[in-house]
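The protein record quoted in full:
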Amino acid sequence: MRTFVATLKSTSPACFGRYYAGDIPKRDKESAADYEERTWRNRLHVAEDGKIFIPPFAFKNCLDSAAKYLGKQIPGRGKTTYTGARSG
């Protein structure tokens, strides 16, 4: 298996989506915006050392979506795009 190390720089805030609604109930007469303001930190994925991370499959799906969106062809492989290509 290959291991790659990358430094990422974002042009927009990360969108974390860990489900937590069942863990923290909404208060009486609390708006959706107020609930989100109070509980947004619970959406984060946090490692044992306290650092925030992007789940591996979320990152993989991001790369897959980008490849599909770009639709670039692989040089020397005809009309094959990176979307359908498998390493071998």
